[in-house]
Write a structure and sequence with these properties.
The chain is of the alpha/beta class and 563 residues long. The chain contains 22 helices and 16 strands. The chain has 2 domains: 330 residues, pyruvate-formate lyase- activating enzyme; 197 residues, Rossmann fold (3-Layer(aba) Sandwich), CATH 3.40.50.280. The strands form 3 sheets. It has an 8-stranded mixed beta sheet with strand order 11-10-12-13-14-15-1-16. Strand 5, helix 3 and strand 6 form a beta-alpha-beta unit.
Length: 563
């Protein structure tokens, strides 16, 4: 008789993505306290902003990225839906909007139509693209429409100027077209604050290929914020497989994964000395170029506060360089050559933001029910203040993914569920504070999301939750649990990994727990009915021990993975 082995991880059927994004509920922003975020700098490098997501997934398959594994297909909300959300935000007094899509400009027609609507309605917004636009998909018409519609922070990603590396990483970017578009933007719209992302140190990359990228940067004289990120090899990506196949040691990958992007790592294909000289030349010849700084800083001061610029400039250097004033001094710029007169905070500050949000989203309020199933969603993506690495690019903004989850739960289950969203360093800045929240809220289920970059913090936080005696289900989701669920589920404090989109999956988990009556744990037979999850067999033992009574041999092979 075949029996299920205890060291197996069970993965249920893949859940289909939402392909009609307009049918999902609008993000209920009243679910978090925006007063805790307004004065903090977000992913776009600005304060007092609101993030919007117009698409899910990415149609491209770059080998260093795990997006297409977490959201296999690329779907887009209608232009009208995106515009109405942006209009809603503008009516609350917000002046800055950041699009956090992996690529916002995949479809030129929709891209231009959106900005034409913004211009026609005179919304008077500043738009930022922190996760980058695809530079070779831009053209003069797209750039003109974008700038006329209020774009300020324009971020594009080159990664490498080597044609061979473009093919290896499957980015397949048209380098010449990319160059032409960036040159057009810098020349015709000098008020645009441009960011150029590149990566340094891919496996098999040669010194000559690395220099091609640096030469490209040096030739783009007026880019405001260029970056040469040292490659990080994340688990579950095709880059990881490629690296291991080309001699990169697993130990080196593990040592590098949580390091800041400017730090030299042991995964580099060339010498440490070469990379150090490369980065020094980049800093001296480009970042600290006096002529360049005298031209671009006055533009930046019109759009950013001094502390926003401080964070941008300090990210280039070790901790001894504190920000804009230090950079100006190092570059040899005298006080009479450049007066520091940055954007004042009162020009962008949003008064009574929480009250405005509550009024705007009052239709999304859930009826109070003392017997409601309580869900606590925790974003573990920012280290506590006392533990923060000062070299880390420090950003804090509302966890939009968790807002999406709870908005959906509220829509589907209404008064049956009561949810709460908290984020590390914002809502709690120590484990004692986290435990106090858990004790007071007394959740029936805890959901935790995290990026791979913070995986150690993620696991330690869950252990701390269990150490308090919490004995109900802990569910994890997000990029790291999706791509590395076999590794994540080795942590016996974790019950379930949600794979990919979480809205419908979390709803199914909560609904089944409500139906069981005890609100603590689901059994194996309930779990295997939920699509889009993985769980450890040694925690959820089936009542039937004969595999043939549960699954066919083919289903067993497909769904059971040795940990």
């Amino acid at each position: 008789m075949n029996t299920l082995k205890k060291d197996l991880i069970f993965k249920t059927k893949t859940r289909k993505q939402f392909n009609k994004l307009d049918e999902l509920p609008t993000y209920d922003r009243s679910l978090v306290n925006y007063d805790n975020y307004n004065k903090r700098i977000g992913h776009a490098g600005v304060k007092y902003s609101m993030a919007v997501q117009a698409t899910r997934g990415c149609p491209y398959r770059c080998f260093y990225c795990d997006v297409y594994k977490t959201t296999l297909h690329h779907f887009r909300r209608s232009t009208e839906s995106v515009f109405e959300e942006v209009k809603l935000i503008a009516n609350m007094g917000v002046k800055r909007v950041e699009f956090i899509d992996d690529i916002f400009n995949v479809k030129k027609k929709d891209f231009i139509e959106f900005f034409n609507k913004v211009k026609k309605e005179n919304l008077d917004l500043n738009f930022f693209f922190p996760t980058a636009l695809k530079g070779d998909l831009l053209d003069r018409e797209s750039i003109d429409a974008m700038m006329a519609g209020g774009a300020v922070g324009v971020n594009v990603s080159l990664e490498s100027a080597s044609p061979r590396m473009q093919k290896v990483m499957r980015k397949n970017l048209d380098i010449q077209k990319f160059r032409e578009n960036l040159e057009y933007l810098c020349k015709n719209y000098p008020e645009a604050v441009t960011t150029l992302n590149t990566m340094h140190g891919f496996p098999t990359e040669t010194e000559e290929e690395a220099m091609m990228t640096l030469d490209f940067i040096l030739s783009m004289k007026w880019v405001h914020f260029p970056y040469t990120h040292v490659v990080r090899i994340f688990p579950g990506t095709d880059l990881e497989k490629f690296a291991l196949n080309h001699g990169v040691q697993r130990k080196a990958i593990n040592e590098s994964i949580d390091k800041s992007y400017h730090m030299v790592t042991p995964t580099l294909p060339f010498s440490k000395e070469f990379t150090e000289k490369y980065k020094l030349k980049f800093l001296k010849d480009y970042v600290l170029n006096k002529e360049r700084l005298l031209k671009i800083i006055p533009v930046q001061m019109k759009h950013f506060t001094e502390d926003e610029l401080d964070q941008r400039y300090s990210s280039y250097f070790p901790s001894k360089v504190k920000g804009l004033r230090d950079v100006i001094k190092i570059a040899g710029i005298k006080e009479n050559e450049l007066k520091i007169d940055c954007l004042k905070e009162n020009h962008i500050e949003i008064k009574d933001m929480n009250e405005k949000i509550k009024k705007t989203f009052k239709s999304a309020e859930v009826l109070k029910n003392d017997n409601a199933f309580k869900v606590l969603l925790i974003n573990i993506s920012t280290h506590f203040t006392k533990d923060r690495d000062v070299s880390e690019y420090d950003v804090l903004e509302p966890p939009l993914g968790l807002i999406a989850l709870l908005s959906y739960l509220n829509k589907e289950l209404k008064e049956k569920v009561r949810g709460k969203i908290i984020k590390s360093r914002v809502d709690f800045d120590s484990y004692d504070e986290l435990n106090d929240i858990i004790k007071k809220f007394n959740p029936d289920l805890i959901g935790v999301s995290a990026m791979t970059f913070h995986k150690d913090f993620f696991h330690n936080s869950i252990k701390k939750i269990r150490d308090t005696g919490y004995n109900k289900m802990i569910v994890t989701g997000g990029p790291h649990p999706t791509t590395s669920y076999e590794e994540v589920l080795k942590d016996k404090n974790i019950d379930i990994c949600v794979l990919g989109e979480g809205e419908a999956t979390l709803k199914d988990i909560v609904q089944k727990l409500i139906l069981t009556g005890d609100k603590k744990y689901l059994d194996y037979e309930n779990l295997i009915e939920i699509n889009g999850i993985a769980f450890s067999k040694d925690k959820f033992v089936p009542k039937v021990q004969n595999i043939n009574e549960l699954l066919t041999e083919e289903e067993f092979k497909t769904n059971s993975i040795s940990a």
